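Quick board copy: two proteins, each given as sequence then C-alpha cells.
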Amino acid sequence: MQPVTLTPAAAATRGAIIDTAERLFRTLGYQKTTVADIARELRMSPANVYRFFPSKAAINEAICARCLAGLDEAAWAIARGPGSAAERIRALFQLLQRETQALFFHERRMHDMVAAALEESWPIVEEHIRTIDTAFRHIVMDGQTAGIFARLDPDETARLLHGSCVIFTHPLLVEKCFRKGEDTALLAGKLADFCLRALRPD
C-alpha cells in the first residue's frame, strides 16, 4: 500500500490518528489497543490507518516521540537557561525525576509503552538519550568555562551524569528500587549534590 502524500489534510488525519491512539493507550493500555480500535474510534477502516502508519509499532513510536519531545525541550530550556552551571545540573536532575514520577506513577498505562521502548531500544529512545547527554554536556562546558567544574572530558562527564539518573528514570529500576511513597525527589537532589562534588576542580 502506497503511503499518502503529507498534504495539510493528510497531516491533520495523521495527527488525529496519533491523538486517538494516545487517548486509547491511556484508557485501554498500550498492549490492549489495536489498530482496529483506533480505526473504529475515527470511523475509518484499519486499511486507511495503515496508509498513514505501516504498523502499530510506527504508531507506538510516534506517541513515544511526542512524550519525549516535551521532555527534551524542557531539558534544553534548563541547559540554556539562567543560573549557574551547578544550579542547572540540579534542575536537570530534578526535571528528569519529576517527569519520570509523573509518567510511571500517574500514567500507569503509558508506563508499559515507555518500558517496552527502553527494553527494545526503539530509535526514538536512543535519540532521546543522546539529547539529554548533549544537554548535560552543554552545562558541563559552561561550568568548565566558568572555572567551577574540573577540566574533565565533557562527553564522558555528561554520559556519567546522565547515567547517574538512571535509578529514577528507568521504569524497571523505579519499580524495583523504590518503596511506594519513597521520596525520589529528595534522592535526585542528593544525587545531584554528590555528582557536583565530584566535578569540583582539584
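And the next:
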Amino acid sequence: MKLIFSQVKLTLGAFILRVEAELSGPVIALCGPSGSGKTSLLELIAGWRRPERGVIQLDDTTLTNTFSSIQIPLRHRRIGYVPQDLGLFSHLTVRQNMLYGQGRHGGGTLETSRTWSFEQVANVLEVESLAERRVWQLSRGEQQRVCLGRALLAGPRLLLLDEPLSNLDRDLKIKILGHLKQVREIFGIPMIHVTHDDEEAEGLGGPVLHMRSGSLDVA
C-alpha cells in the first residue's frame, strides 16, 4: 500500500488538519491523543469527509483531488472502515450484519483482488457459533469481531481501524489483537490502525506514526 497526501487541509471549527505525507507498508499504526485528528484523517481516506483543499492518492488511484474536482464516492473506494461506535444493526443477526457488507461497493472504481465467504471470515474471527445471535446478545469483544467481519466481507483494498481495542480489558485486547494479526496474514489486506495507546500501536508491527494537533509526524 502507498497512500499519498498532498496539500491536504480540513477545517472543523477551530480545528485545522493539515497533512503532507507519503505512507507505505502492509500495516501502519497511527497514534496520538484524543482530538489530534486521527479519526478525521481516516474519514478523509474513507470518503466520509472531503477536504477543502488537497490530493489523496491510494496506490495508482486518485481518491480526492480538489484542484481537479475529483472525489470518488465512498461506496466506490473499496475501503473497509471499522468505526469507534461499530455501527452494527441491533435488529439483525450476526450473519446478517456481516453479510450487509457484501455488495456494498458494486461497480466500484477500485477493484479487489479477492472476495471471501461468510464461512471463511467467521472461522478466522471465531464467530461461527454466534451467527444467529442478535448484536445485543454479544459482548463488546464479540461485537468488535463482527464489525471487522462485515468490513472484510465488503472485499476492501484497505482496512481502516479506528481504535478497535478501546474499552476492552487487557486480556481481551490481546485476543482481538491476535485476530487482527490473523486478518493481516491470511487475507493480506493493508491496515491503518488508529489508537492512543503506544503499546497497542506496536502490537501489529510496522511503523508507528504520531498525530499532534492536526499534524502528522512522519519523521
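Board note added afterward: The first helix runs from residue 38 to 46.
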